[in-house]
Design a protein that fits this description.
By secondary structure, the protein is an alpha+beta fold. It contains 7 helices and 6 strands, in the order H-H-H-E-E-H-E-E-H-H-E-E-H. It is elongated.
Length: 211
């Protein structure tokens, strides 16, 4: 009777140890799964954080000097030269030539005149007005001379062109009188200088007058 009780006690103890062992293994398994999930989540978070830092810290690379130069060269190849633009603007009306006072690129004609102080005028204020008026008249005269030196297609003189088109010289003179005074200067000796300017291809420029 005592032996059967001892055996039962041993069997119960063994079963208890087996159940405890299974529980321990189960808890270890669950603990391992939790650790693995935590490590996986931590790894993914670190990766996303590193990617965000890389994206935020990324700067645009500066354009290389060689690229800039190539772009400028391409623009220069496409854009026509100033002389070509001028020649097209004056085509059929004027010939682009080397005439002092004519700036073909800016499209203007300019001339300077000088006025001397009148000897019979003693009033300084009146003399100042007269000397500048004389300078403007001289500049208008020089403008007219510059225009008459210009050529028209096909390489004709301006006077010949005016005769063929039956254009009176008075039309050119009136055009010159409408010149804009761009500079006035009084000299220490009492004289004055005035610089006048007229347009070539504007709505009221020389080309329009010659048509």
């Amino acid at each position: 009777m005592k032996m059967s009780k001892c055996r039962s006690a041993v069997v119960s103890e063994v079963k208890g140890q087996q159940i405890l062992k299974k529980r321990t293994e189960t808890e270890k398994g669950r603990s391992g799964e939790i650790r693995f999930s935590f490590l996986l989540l931590f790894t993914v978070s670190c990766f996303l954080f590193a990617v965000s830092l890389t994206a935020c810290g990324k700067k645009e690379e500066p354009v290389k000097e060689e690229t800039k130069i190539s772009v400028v060269e391409k623009k220069a190849e496409v854009a026509p030269s100033a002389e070509a633009i001028s020649a097209e603007a004056y085509k059929g009306a004027l010939v682009v030539s080397d005439v002092t006072g004519v700036n073909w690129q800016k499209g203007v004609i300019s001339a300077t005149g000088r006025g001397l102080p009148p000897k019979h005028i003693t009033n300084p204020a009146q003399a100042k007005i007269l000397v500048m008026r004389a300078a403007i008249v001289e500049a208008q005269k020089n403008l007219l001379e510059i225009i008459l030196k210009m050529k028209t297609p096909p390489d004709k003189g301006m006077k010949e062109y005016l005769d063929e088109k039956h254009i009176e010289i008075t039309r050119i003179e009136g055009f010159v009188k409408g010149a804009i005074v761009v500079k006035e200067e009084y000299k220490d000796d009492g004289s004055a200088e005035a610089t006048l300017e007229v347009q070539l291809v504007a709505a009221d420029g020389l080309v329009a007058v010659l048509k």
